[in-house]
Every structure is written in structure tokens, then in C-alpha cells.
Amino acid sequence: MEEEQEPEVAPDPVDVPEDDPKADAPHNISDEDAFKILLEMKMKKRQKKPNLPSTVTELVTEEGSKVFVVGTAHFSDSSKRDVVKTIQEVQPDVVVVELCQYRVSMLKMDEKTLLKEAKEINLEKLQQAIKQNGVMSGLMQMLLLKVSAHITEQLGMAPGGEFREAFKEAGKVPFCKFHLGDRPIPVTFKRAIAALSFWQKVKLAWGLCFLSDPISKDDVEKCKQKDLLEQMMAEMIGEFPDLHRTIVSERDIYLTYMLKQAAKRIELPRASEAEPRKCIPSVVVGVVGMGHVPGIEKNWNTDLNIQEIMSVPPPSTSSKVVRLVIKATVFGLMGYGCYRIGQRTVQFILSMQTTQNCLQRLTEIRPRH
């Protein structure tokens, strides 16, 4: 006997708001019409008077484009929320973050992996940093990573959370582009190292090596007016104005330049080639450390040329000397290690009973004169 099947229940109809552009749209529409519909939806969702966090600074270009700069603390849950809210409110055309291509991996790595990576500073990472940036710059990069690892360990929070949130939210906004706005880190480190004398490098390295002050999450939130990581760095490099110039001031210029480039006017879609082109001001969200916001404001109305701050000076004499010393030390240790291992191996073989028996037999069969 066949079981009686229950009738299928049709799903409830979905209510579509009257002002929804998709309500009257035909099912079969062209790509161009779909583009227009999505753009119209985006414009309607964009708030004319957005309710933005206090950490957001609004800047306007000469063409009328708006740039909303979110000043963040790199180890702050509150900053993540600020970034999400800002992007949702203004529905930007471009999101620019304070990252370069050498640090873009943190956007797609999960929090657990990043937390582990940030805490682990090993020989392999050191070798990679030296290979990429040179001896002095590589060593300095690892010392700065140690600062970040110290904060990570203290807070149990991986860095760059606000950038990952920006990346996720940008993907939810129609036609929103995502730009990396920071100067390549090898350029920054090489220029920073070149700005210091040999003894300044030693003094800075010493300070970074013995960083151990405890940090709490309350400390991070208190630093919303000045990013914690950048504040710690500012305290350590306060004695070195040239270092502050290369690590902070020059990057302020670069970030400002990239934000301006992202804020170009955008062209609206056209129904046909005969239709005249129409451009409108764009909306940009920038996500940067709080310490960079004053510099961006300062440079906003200035004509910027980044060629000078992108040049890498040749290695100094001290860098060459250090490189030679390190190489000589490494090869010397390797040679000494091989010598000691060989010496102990020979002693071990000679001490074996089998070896002694063989030597005794050889002595006995040696022809006597």
C-alpha cells in the first residue's frame, strides 16, 4: 500500500518594497540595465548625512569627491566596528587600506593562523626578511615584528583586524574597489635604516630587543586618539627624528597621495555610445592608523610628488661591514662546528672495541725488520 504523500506547501511570497528598483524590473534584463539597477540601489542606500563614528575624518577633493578616513588602533575591536559602520553608511566606490603588497596575506588568513604567525619569530622568517630587505633592514623588520608580537601576546589578538573587516565589507558594496594604499615595506625599512648612523641603529635595536612592558585591552582603547603600536614606536624612535620622518611622515605623504588617486571622479554607465559621458564625484573610505590622520590632513591640499620618497639609497658602509661580519661569523661557526663534529666522530670511532681490534691486528701483521 502506497503511503499518501503530503502536498507541497508553496513558499510565502516575498514582499518587495515599492521603492525597490528590482520590483518593476523584467526578469530578462541586459547587463547594462542590471548595472544601472545595482548602482541605483547603491545610491539609495548611501546616506546623505551619514552617522559616522568620532574616529572618522571627512576630506573633500577639488573635484568634489569625498574621502572618509577612519583612524584606527591596530589592535582594537572598537576600530573594527568603526570600519564596518562607516562602509555601510557611505557605500563607497573605493576602500583604501594601510597595507602594501608585502602584507596583503593578512587579509585572507584566519584569526587563529595570524595569531600564531604573529607570535612566532623564527630563523626562517629572519632569513626571508634579510633576503628581501638586506641585512640591516631585515634585522630591523624582525625587531619591529617583535614589537607587534609582544602586543599580540599581551592582548591575545591578531593585528590587522580592521583591514580584514574593510575587505569583507567592501565585497558587499556593489562596484566597490579595494586598494592597497601603503608604501612597500622594503622601501620604508631601507630608507629608515639609511637615515640612522651605526650607533643609532645599535641603540634602537637594543630598545626593541628589551621591550617588555605589559599592555591591556583598556590601554588599546585609551589610545584611540593615537594608535597603540604607533605610540609605542613613537616613544622608542623619539630620539631619532630622521627615523620618524621615514616611518611616519613619508608614509603620511604616500597614503595621502593614494587616497587622492582613489578619489577620482567616476563615469556612470551609458545606454549607448551616442549618449554623452557623465562623471560624478566618488566616495572613498580610507582605513589607516590613527597616528597617520593628522599627517594626511596636513598634506591634503598640497601637491604631492612621491618619487623622492620611493627611492632607495645605496647600502651604507656600516651595512656592508655588518654584512661581512655576519657572513664571517656564520661561516666561522659552521667551520668550527664541522671541526668539532669531525673531531668527536674520529674519537668515537677510535674508542670502539672493533676499531681497536682492527688496529691491533694491523700492528701484529706489520712486517718486522
Structure write-up:
- With 369 residues, this protein is of the alpha/beta class.
- The chain folds into 2 domains: 49-315, no CATH class; 321-365.
- It has helices at residues 31-45, 77-90, 111-119, 123-133, 135-155, 161-170, 185-194, 198-209, 217-222, 228-237, 241-262, 293-299, 307-310, 317-351, 353-365; strands spanning 56-60, 66-72, 94-97, 177-180, 266-267, 279-280, 283-289.
- The termini are far apart.
Amino- and carboxy-terminal Cα gap:
113 Å
Percent range of helical residues = 40-55%
Which structural class matches the secondary elements? alpha/beta
The number of distinct structural domains comes to 2
Gyration radius over CA: 30 Å
Count of beta strands = 7
Weakly predicted, low-confidence segments: 1-25
DSSP strand content: 5-15%
- For the biggest β-sheet, the strand order reads 1-2-7-3-4
- Main beta sheet: 5 strands, mixed
SSE pattern: HEEHEHHHHEHHHHHEEEHHHH
Q: What coarse outline follows from CA principal-axis ratios?
A: elongated
Continuous helix count: 15
Oligomeric description of these chains: single chain
The average pLDDT value, as a whole number, equals: 76
Helices and strands in order:
Blueprint: H1 31-45, E1 56-60, E2 66-72, H2 77-90, E3 94-97, H3 111-119, H4 123-133, H5 135-155, H6 161-170, E4 177-180, H7 185-194, H8 198-209, H9 217-222, H10 228-237, H11 241-262, E5 266-267, E6 279-280, E7 283-289, H12 293-299, H13 307-310, H14 317-351, H15 353-365
Parallel strand pairs: 2-7, 3-4, 3-7
Antiparallel strand pairs: 1-2, 5-6
Helix pairs in contact: 2-6, 4-5, 5-7, 7-11, 11-12
